[in-house]
Design a protein that fits this description.
This protein is mainly alpha-helical. The chain has ten helices and no strands. Helix 4 runs antiparallel to helix 5 and helix 7 crosses helix 8. About 3% of the residues have low confidence.
Protein backbone atom coordinates (compact mmCIF):
# COMPACT_ATOMS: atom_id res chain seq x y z
CA UNK A 1 0.00 0.00 0.00
CA UNK A 2 2.88 2.38 0.83
CA UNK A 3 4.41 1.70 -2.59
CA UNK A 4 1.13 2.57 -4.34
CA UNK A 5 0.88 5.82 -2.37
CA UNK A 6 4.44 6.73 -3.32
CA UNK A 7 3.74 5.99 -6.98
CA UNK A 8 0.58 8.14 -6.95
CA UNK A 9 2.53 10.97 -5.34
CA UNK A 10 5.26 10.67 -7.98
CA UNK A 11 2.72 10.84 -10.82
CA UNK A 12 1.04 13.83 -9.21
CA UNK A 13 4.35 15.60 -8.72
CA UNK A 14 5.28 14.88 -12.33
CA UNK A 15 1.97 16.29 -13.61
CA UNK A 16 2.18 19.29 -11.30
CA UNK A 17 5.68 20.15 -12.49
CA UNK A 18 4.61 19.84 -16.14
CA UNK A 19 1.64 22.18 -15.51
CA UNK A 20 3.93 24.60 -13.69
CA UNK A 21 6.26 24.78 -16.68
CA UNK A 22 3.34 25.20 -19.09
CA UNK A 23 1.82 27.94 -16.92
CA UNK A 24 5.13 29.79 -16.78
CA UNK A 25 5.59 29.40 -20.54
CA UNK A 26 2.12 30.75 -21.28
CA UNK A 27 2.73 33.77 -19.02
CA UNK A 28 6.12 34.49 -20.61
CA UNK A 29 4.83 34.01 -24.15
CA UNK A 30 2.01 36.46 -23.38
CA UNK A 31 4.48 38.93 -21.91
CA UNK A 32 7.48 38.64 -24.23
CA UNK A 33 6.36 36.60 -27.22
CA UNK A 34 7.41 33.09 -28.17
CA UNK A 35 10.53 33.98 -30.18
CA UNK A 36 11.79 36.37 -27.48
CA UNK A 37 11.37 33.83 -24.67
CA UNK A 38 14.38 31.58 -24.17
CA UNK A 39 14.57 28.24 -22.39
CA UNK A 40 16.70 30.02 -19.79
CA UNK A 41 13.83 32.46 -19.18
CA UNK A 42 11.61 29.47 -18.45
CA UNK A 43 14.21 27.93 -16.15
CA UNK A 44 14.48 31.17 -14.20
CA UNK A 45 10.70 31.57 -13.95
CA UNK A 46 10.09 28.05 -12.63
CA UNK A 47 13.34 27.71 -10.70
CA UNK A 48 14.50 24.47 -12.31
CA UNK A 49 17.65 23.18 -13.97
CA UNK A 50 17.98 22.71 -17.72
CA UNK A 51 18.01 18.93 -17.29
CA UNK A 52 14.64 19.08 -15.53
CA UNK A 53 13.13 21.06 -18.38
CA UNK A 54 14.34 18.57 -20.98
CA UNK A 55 13.00 15.72 -18.86
CA UNK A 56 9.50 17.03 -19.63
CA UNK A 57 9.96 18.66 -23.05
CA UNK A 58 12.60 17.78 -25.62
CA UNK A 59 12.47 21.28 -27.16
CA UNK A 60 10.80 24.66 -26.86
CA UNK A 61 8.72 23.76 -29.92
CA UNK A 62 7.42 20.62 -28.17
CA UNK A 63 6.40 22.80 -25.24
CA UNK A 64 4.63 25.14 -27.66
CA UNK A 65 2.67 22.22 -29.13
CA UNK A 66 1.51 21.09 -25.68
CA UNK A 67 0.58 24.65 -24.82
CA UNK A 68 -1.47 25.06 -28.00
CA UNK A 69 -3.13 21.69 -27.31
CA UNK A 70 -4.16 23.08 -23.94
CA UNK A 71 -5.52 26.22 -25.62
CA UNK A 72 -7.57 24.03 -27.97
CA UNK A 73 -8.96 22.19 -24.94
CA UNK A 74 -9.97 25.51 -23.35
CA UNK A 75 -11.80 26.46 -26.55
CA UNK A 76 -13.59 23.12 -26.59
CA UNK A 77 -14.80 23.73 -23.03
CA UNK A 78 -16.49 26.90 -24.30
CA UNK A 79 -18.15 24.92 -27.11
CA UNK A 80 -19.15 22.06 -24.81
CA UNK A 81 -20.90 24.47 -22.45
CA UNK A 82 -23.02 25.76 -25.33
CA UNK A 83 -23.82 22.28 -26.67
CA UNK A 84 -24.97 21.17 -23.21
CA UNK A 85 -27.65 23.87 -22.86
CA UNK A 86 -30.94 22.02 -23.57
CA UNK A 87 -33.05 25.18 -23.74
CA UNK A 88 -31.22 26.48 -26.83
CA UNK A 89 -32.29 25.72 -30.39
CA UNK A 90 -29.73 24.37 -32.88
CA UNK A 91 -29.45 27.76 -34.60
CA UNK A 92 -28.89 29.48 -31.24
CA UNK A 93 -26.22 26.92 -30.32
CA UNK A 94 -24.47 27.18 -33.66
CA UNK A 95 -24.46 30.97 -33.44
CA UNK A 96 -23.20 31.03 -29.85
CA UNK A 97 -20.44 28.51 -30.58
CA UNK A 98 -19.00 30.78 -33.27
CA UNK A 99 -19.52 34.08 -31.47
CA UNK A 100 -18.25 32.87 -28.09
CA UNK A 101 -15.25 31.18 -29.70
CA UNK A 102 -14.44 34.46 -31.44
CA UNK A 103 -14.83 36.36 -28.17
CA UNK A 104 -12.45 33.91 -26.48
CA UNK A 105 -9.92 34.56 -29.24
CA UNK A 106 -10.27 38.33 -28.82
CA UNK A 107 -9.57 37.97 -25.10
CA UNK A 108 -6.33 36.10 -25.98
CA UNK A 109 -5.58 38.27 -29.01
CA UNK A 110 -1.94 39.22 -28.38
CA UNK A 111 -0.87 35.66 -27.67
CA UNK A 112 -2.82 34.25 -30.62
CA UNK A 113 -1.33 36.82 -32.99
CA UNK A 114 2.12 35.79 -31.81
CA UNK A 115 1.23 32.14 -32.40
CA UNK A 116 -0.11 32.99 -35.85
CA UNK A 117 3.22 34.52 -36.88
CA UNK A 118 5.00 31.39 -35.66
CA UNK A 119 2.65 28.90 -37.28
CA UNK A 120 2.76 30.65 -40.65
CA UNK A 121 6.50 30.23 -40.91
CA UNK A 122 7.48 27.49 -43.37
CA UNK A 123 9.43 25.58 -40.69
CA UNK A 124 6.27 25.20 -38.59
CA UNK A 125 3.93 23.88 -41.27
CA UNK A 126 3.76 20.43 -39.69
CA UNK A 127 3.07 21.88 -36.23
CA UNK A 128 0.29 24.02 -37.68
CA UNK A 129 -1.28 21.01 -39.39
CA UNK A 130 -1.17 18.97 -36.16
CA UNK A 131 -2.89 21.75 -34.25
CA UNK A 132 -5.59 22.19 -36.89
CA UNK A 133 -6.22 18.45 -37.05
CA UNK A 134 -6.53 18.15 -33.27
CA UNK A 135 -8.92 21.10 -33.12
CA UNK A 136 -11.01 19.79 -36.01
CA UNK A 137 -11.42 16.31 -34.52
CA UNK A 138 -12.71 17.72 -31.24
CA UNK A 139 -14.86 20.40 -32.90
CA UNK A 140 -16.58 17.85 -35.16
CA UNK A 141 -17.59 15.59 -32.26
CA UNK A 142 -19.34 18.48 -30.51
CA UNK A 143 -20.82 20.36 -33.47
CA UNK A 144 -22.18 17.17 -35.09
CA UNK A 145 -24.55 16.99 -32.10
CA UNK A 146 -25.83 20.48 -32.92
CA UNK A 147 -26.24 19.57 -36.59
CA UNK A 148 -28.25 16.48 -35.59
CA UNK A 149 -30.43 18.66 -33.38
CA UNK A 150 -30.95 21.09 -36.25
CA UNK A 151 -32.00 18.28 -38.57
CA UNK A 152 -34.49 17.07 -35.94
CA UNK A 153 -35.85 20.63 -35.59
CA UNK A 154 -36.16 20.98 -39.37
CA UNK A 155 -33.78 23.96 -39.63
CA UNK A 156 -30.81 22.05 -41.12
CA UNK A 157 -31.04 19.61 -44.01
CA UNK A 158 -28.31 17.00 -44.30
CA UNK A 159 -28.12 13.20 -44.05
CA UNK A 160 -24.48 13.46 -42.91
CA UNK A 161 -24.23 15.45 -39.65
CA UNK A 162 -20.63 14.49 -38.82
CA UNK A 163 -19.23 15.22 -42.27
CA UNK A 164 -21.26 18.41 -42.43
CA UNK A 165 -19.77 19.52 -39.10
CA UNK A 166 -16.33 18.78 -40.51
CA UNK A 167 -16.97 20.87 -43.61
CA UNK A 168 -18.20 23.80 -41.50
CA UNK A 169 -14.96 23.63 -39.52
CA UNK A 170 -12.92 23.57 -42.73
CA UNK A 171 -14.83 26.59 -44.01
CA UNK A 172 -14.16 28.46 -40.77
CA UNK A 173 -10.48 27.49 -40.87
CA UNK A 174 -10.13 28.47 -44.52
CA UNK A 175 -11.67 31.86 -43.77
CA UNK A 176 -9.24 32.25 -40.87
CA UNK A 177 -6.35 31.50 -43.24
CA UNK A 178 -7.46 34.26 -45.61
CA UNK A 179 -7.84 36.75 -42.75
CA UNK A 180 -4.47 35.73 -41.29
CA UNK A 181 -2.84 36.38 -44.66
CA UNK A 182 -4.45 39.82 -44.74
CA UNK A 183 -3.03 40.52 -41.26
CA UNK A 184 0.44 39.38 -42.25
CA UNK A 185 0.32 41.14 -45.62
CA UNK A 186 -1.86 44.27 -45.22
CA UNK A 187 -3.60 45.75 -48.27
CA UNK A 188 -5.26 49.13 -48.75
CA UNK A 189 -8.61 47.55 -49.57
CA UNK A 190 -8.56 45.26 -46.52
CA UNK A 191 -11.93 46.40 -45.18
CA UNK A 192 -13.72 45.53 -48.44
CA UNK A 193 -11.94 42.17 -48.63
CA UNK A 194 -12.94 41.33 -45.05
CA UNK A 195 -16.57 42.17 -45.78
CA UNK A 196 -16.61 40.05 -48.94
CA UNK A 197 -14.76 37.11 -47.33
CA UNK A 198 -16.80 37.00 -44.13
CA UNK A 199 -20.18 37.22 -45.87
CA UNK A 200 -19.24 34.66 -48.53
CA UNK A 201 -18.17 32.14 -45.88
CA UNK A 202 -21.25 32.72 -43.79
CA UNK A 203 -23.43 32.07 -46.84
CA UNK A 204 -21.40 28.95 -47.69
CA UNK A 205 -21.85 27.62 -44.15
CA UNK A 206 -25.62 28.09 -44.36
CA UNK A 207 -25.72 26.19 -47.64
CA UNK A 208 -23.63 23.31 -46.31
CA UNK A 209 -26.02 22.98 -43.35
CA UNK A 210 -29.07 23.31 -45.53
CA UNK A 211 -30.12 26.31 -43.43
CA UNK A 212 -32.31 29.16 -44.66
CA UNK A 213 -30.38 32.09 -46.10
CA UNK A 214 -29.74 34.70 -43.42
CA UNK A 215 -30.70 32.36 -40.57
CA UNK A 216 -27.15 32.21 -39.18
CA UNK A 217 -25.31 35.27 -37.88
CA UNK A 218 -22.04 33.57 -37.01
CA UNK A 219 -19.56 36.05 -38.49
CA UNK A 220 -19.63 39.82 -38.33
CA UNK A 221 -17.32 41.65 -40.73
CA UNK A 222 -17.42 44.96 -38.83
CA UNK A 223 -16.47 43.28 -35.53
CA UNK A 224 -13.67 41.26 -37.13
CA UNK A 225 -12.26 44.39 -38.76
CA UNK A 226 -12.46 46.37 -35.51
CA UNK A 227 -10.97 43.68 -33.26
CA UNK A 228 -8.19 42.38 -35.51
CA UNK A 229 -7.32 45.06 -38.08
CA UNK A 230 -7.47 48.39 -36.25
Amino acid sequence: MAGATSMARTVKDHDSRRREILDAAQALFYQKGYEQTSVQDLLNAVGIAKGTFYHYFDSKQTLLKELTDRIVEETMVVIQQVVDQPELTAVEKFTRIYLQTHQWKVEHKDFLLDLMRIFYQDDNLRLRYQLMRSAMDQFVVLVAQVVEQGVAEGVFVTPYPRTTAQITYQLMQNMAEILADLMLHPRPDVDALIYETVNAYQQATERVLGAAEGSLQIFDAATIYEKWFT
